[in-house]
Specification:
By secondary structure, this protein is mainly alpha-helical.
Length: 162
């Protein structure tokens, strides 16, 4: 069965192995930091702040890119969403935001998830985030095309040297 939500093309298998190595190392760091934050939440709840999770995600992401660069990864695979994938991603973002919105504004919606204000907020939020997801997807697509052209140029240079 073909995946209809995203497009993925591998540029170089050696690069993929190095990316997997960097990903495994950053995932290990991420798990240890999450465990540490869990221990802080259990043993000293007054010191725990939910924004710690955001900081852990940012640290893990920076560690991943830095480790990939130090391993010598220069080509990232081509990856972008299809139109259906963009619509689904926007729906996921909207659902996360609207569930938090309902928790914080439950009195405004009169404890009714079918309130007209709440349902219209779903539609407005979806329509506000949809263009940004498509713009981000265009960025991913253009970066993938640029990386493939650079990869092909470097391969041509290697062949001409030999």
């Amino acid at each position: 069965m073909k995946n209809r939500f995203y497009y993925y093309q591998l540029l170089d298998e050696r690069e993929e192995q190095l990316m997997n190595k960097a990903g495994a190392e950053s995932f290990t760091l991420f798990i240890w930091l999450v465990l540490l934050s869990y221990l802080v939440a259990v043993l000293a709840p007054s010191l725990f702040n939910p924004s710690m999770m955001l900081i852990i995600i940012i640290i893990g992401t920076f560690y991943f890119f830095n480790r990939a660069r130090s391993l010598g990864v220069t080509y990232y695979s081509r990856f972008h969403f299809t139109i259906l994938g963009c619509l689904l991603l926007t729906l996921v973002i909207t659902a996360i935001l609207m569930l938090q919105n309902y928790q914080f504004n439950i009195e405004i919606y009169q404890h009714n998830p079918l309130n007209v204000k709440y349902l219209s907020a779903w539609v407005i939020t979806y329509l506000l985030y949809l263009p940004w997801v498509f713009i981000g997807n265009l960025g991913l697509k253009s970066y993938g095309e640029w990386a493939q052209k650079k990869f092909e140029q470097d391969m041509d240079e290697l062949e001409s040297i030999e």
